[in-house]
Amino acid sequence: MSLPPTARRMMLFSLGAIALWATAPAKTVADEDARQANAMLTNEAIFSTEDYAAKEPGATQWLTADNAYTALEPAPGHEEREAGVDENGEETPPPQEIVAYDLATLERRVLVTTKQLTPEGRDSPLAVDDYAWSDDRRRLLIYTNSEQVWRVKSRGDYWVLNLDTGHLRQLGGTDAAPSSLQFAKFSPDGRAVAYVRDADIFLESDSGDIHKLTERGSEAIINGIMSWAYEEEFSIRDGFRFSPDGARIAFWQFDTSGVRDFLIIDNTSELYPTVTRIPYPKVGETVSAARIGMVSIEGGDPVWVEPPGDPRQHYIPRMQWAGSSDAVLLQQVNRRQNRNQFYYADASDGSLTPVLVDEEATHLDDFHDVKWLQDGKFFTLISERSGWRHIYRVSRDGSSLVDLTPGDYDVDELVAVNEADNALYFTASPDDSASRYLFRTTLDGSNEAARITPGSFSGDNVYDIADDGQHAIHRHSRLLQPPQYRLVTLPGHAERRMLEDNSALRERLSTLAGGDPEFFSVKARDGLVMDGFMLRPANVDRRQSYPLLMYVYGEVAGQTVRDRWVGDRNLWHWLMTQRGYAVASIDNRGTPALKGRDWRKSLYGGIGILSSRDQYDGLQALLARHDYLDPERVGIWGHSGGGSMTLNMLFRHPEAYSVGISRAPVSDQRLYDAIYQERYSGLPDEHAEGYVQGSPITHAAGLEGKLLLIHGTGDDNVHYQSAERLIDELVRLNKPFDFLPYPNRRHALTLGDGTELHLYSTMTRYLEEHLK
């Protein structure tokens, strides 16, 4: 399948190994001179103010039955009030109310006022983090007072507002501590709410009666929430599901016994150290045993589903009700993660019926819930079995598969199905892996896919589609253009209402000095084409030479070359161009670009080996093309997997990189978690040499340039242990380096007052001192 001409980037020129595409109209020298005379970015402005923060609409929900959508909006008198900041640096909104917009007329009406959101005996309304309607829209579930649990705010307080009576009550009862409930949801009839508290599932009726539905039995057992590794590597947190008839709840149970604890030590909060224990399965170690239970809302013993095989050598990354209340569909994946067996589990006795197998020679990348079609007669499957990531319609018994998205291109995401219109919506970008666009095809496979996103929206496009498929909230952004949010019709894509245009930020950005982004392609030594982007200083004088800063990730979990707004990071890159640096990034093979299965699987068994060669080849091609880039002043930086790649490049190619900033790297792959590392590097007893050669620490003797190593001591993901092991090896080798630990900061290095400003200010000073 090919895109219409309006979707293709215009090729400006091709020379040697590099082709460049424009992403914005060309600027004249006079334009650039005018911009140069205007505003300059500062770290303080980016990381300590809201001056360059993009706005987004308040939390929206579709009310399809009412032909409307709802949104959180500032209450009267608070429209211009800025959000506050809590102790973790997170925004706290001003008083808000919930409003509805009629999709036919766009008439606005207030559904829930601040008065209705104010608990009895209090003077101020609840600060709403999120909300959900019961199916009959007579009750509202409110999430507030949320707290961070590892990566997101998934634990907090829940309240129910009865819209018939106006009664507002808090869930959990008198035994519940503040901010202790997780993943609350209405039963299908709206008369009860289930939630997790202290790793057990509870059901609370409309009258306030609370029933405990599960029993842990020991600290090693957790019900209804995910283990650390499942949350991190399978992107799943909520661990229970109501049956469609509301009679049962299906849930995950994890037995973490035998999984060794990793200890996170906090030396600063108290007089003596405090320790947090996390069951964390490292490469080759014992993993949690998962099983599925189904329990009646009336209580009693669960019906257990226990798939065949050793549960310590398998995972259950997805589970959902199978289009009815009679069975659940679960996906059981082997530890190597190259075989996914789909089963139906009978709700009455837990017996299993095999349905379908999805299998790869190397590894499976992602696991997805299915969407049920025709009252459970068919379901969707996302698979790479054709060599490309496609969406299939599968018969209930698994015997018939129809490819709904045929062609030599990848689907990025299945967005929505609309059976009434025989429509399937998905995002893809067949001719440009840096972008994403919405496409529509038929659920019966009768028509070819057609692009829905208009050609005027080059870049990144994200859609939240209403249940009836007639409207969507469309988010559009580009690399240095903040997002705009629109209400649009489908499939025509007519704009009904601008929800947020970020016009003030766009105007502020238009005054900044600095070059516009360019996207390019380079060839590796074996002819493989890789994508990249570059930001340049304004008014580049080709008679001078400029330092080059490479931004890298390079692992299978992330793609850096995307034409989308990512906020602070790209603003900092922009700041560096104002200080005279060119900034570039290249996606080596193996990154999750939309380039087919072979591209994405090519690093299996040796993460860091071929990818570092690709990064070196890409750099050499870039330097050969642009004679104003100084090959003696090349720096590189990255975070997490990008921190690992930064180390690999400094250690393996010291002649090419003079400075590196490595944040939160995995210095030795054997230190990381089993699910991620074994998926891509293989099982350690089968790929032992790949683990050794792919790990930066193996090549530390090659360090010659300047290295700044940065790590948070409270990192629960890539442990501080990784930095300490590398430091120990560099000391043994008598290699000079610089090190900056952040006490108790987690993996992202964002939490804590002043953290980001200090982090990026330090990075800026380090480059100014050693690269410029």
From TrEMBL:
GO molecular function: dipeptidyl-peptidase activity; serine-type peptidase activity
Cross-referenced Pfam families: DPPIV_N, Peptidase_S9
Signal peptide region: 1-26
Region of interest (Disordered), residue spans: 76-95
Domain of life: Bacteria
Gene3D superfamilies assigned to the protein according to its UniProt record, in alphabetical order: alpha/beta hydrolase, Dipeptidylpeptidase IV, N-terminal domain
Keyword annotations from UniProtKB, A to Z: Signal
Keyword Metal-binding annotated: no
InterPro entries per UniProt: AB_hydrolase_fold, Peptidase_S9_cat, Peptidase_S9B_N, Serine_Prot_S9B/DPPIV
Segments forming domain Peptidase S9 prolyl oligopeptidase catalytic: 575-772
Domain Dipeptidylpeptidase IV N-terminal positions: 134-482
Gene Ontology biological process terms in this record: proteolysis
PANTHER family with a match to the protein in the record: DIPEPTIDYL PEPTIDASE 9, PROTEASE FAMILY S9B,C DIPEPTIDYL-PEPTIDASE IV-RELATED
Name of the protein: Dipeptidyl-peptidase-4
Organism from which the protein derives: Chromatocurvus halotolerans
